[in-house]
Write a structure and sequence with these properties.
27% of the residues lie in helices and 26% in strands. Helix 7 packs across helix 8. By secondary structure, the protein is of the alpha/beta class.
């Protein structure tokens, strides 16, 4: 399995996942043309994409989907309840390319498990299994729970939200109080603290690679997220670089991970 985050953050999110038999995108928060440019970096043509999966309806996850699907005749998959908020937003996506599911499903050689997460719209995290490889992508949630942790446990690779630093959010002057409360609420986003606590449990389950994802441009920085979370993990007896490795996703294409 080959996995790369092509964009992460408030301006757009895309993850590319490739196996021997399938090439899929999770979300497409950049324009169609920009997505095609980034796929070209991987020597992947847009018409080679087998499917686009969507987590939820927010624009930073769906911006380029409608044009991409209609232009290249690509099916779009999402949970049946997410489609309720997408019908008008994806008006160019043909009926035959609107695919829904309501639980785990098999797509070619990938076992795909959607996991509902707590956000201000209907939203899902995903785990992907191929042979002995398992990855999970978990962003846009205000809190974790036992069901989510159990579903993503034992993933070799997890893209996990670390959206904001609490002090930066509280003390920042750009966001109104109502937005700060939304972000920090149970249907908002994960803080660096929340992310560190989740990583502790994942490390204990055998996860060895984390990519901190969906960082806020206003309320976090890559260095702060990495250093803070690494320090918190050390307090739990988990050493970054030894017990687990942490990378940070960015708006630009990130590291390519190859799982066997």
């Amino acid at each position: 399995m080959r996995v790369i985050n092509l964009a992460s953050g408030s301006d757009g999110n895309i993850t590319y996942i490739e196996t021997e038999s399938s090439k899929i995108l999770l979300d497409m928060g950049l324009s169609c043309s920009e997505t095609v440019k980034r796929l070209d970096l991987l020597n992947v043509k847009p018409n080679e994409i087998d499917a686009v999966l969507l987590t939820h309806q927010h624009i930073d996850h769906i911006r380029g989907v409608d044009v991409f699907s209609s232009k290249y005749d690509i099916p779009v998959f999402t949970h049946k309840e997410v489609w309720n908020g997408l019908d008008e937003k994806l008006s160019k996506t043909s009926n035959k390319n609107r695919k829904s599911f309501d639980g785990d499903f098999l797509f070619k050689d990938l076992e795909i498990s959607p996991i509902e997460v707590s956000h201000d719209v209907k939203c899902f995290a995903y785990s992907f299994k191929n042979s002995n490889s398992k990855i999970s992508i978990v962003t846009d949630l205000g809190k974790t729970n036992d069901l989510l942790i159990n579903k993503i446990a034992s993933s070799q690779l997890v893209y996990l939200e670390a959206n904001y630093d609490k002090n930066m959010l509280i003390n920042g002057s750009k966001y109104p109080l109502s937005l700060k409360r939304r972000i920090a609420g149970s249907q908002g986003h994960l803080s660096n603290d929340d992310s560190a606590k989740t990583i502790k449990v994942l490390a204990e389950s055998g996860t060895r690679q984390i990519v901190l994802s969906h960082l806020s441009e206003e309320n976090n920085t890559p260095d702060l997220a990495y250093e803070y979370i690494s320090r918190k993990l050390l307090e739990y007896g988990i050493e970054e670089g030894k017990d687990i490795r942490i990378d940070v996703a960015s708006p630009r294409p990130g590291a390519i991970f190859r799982l066997k």
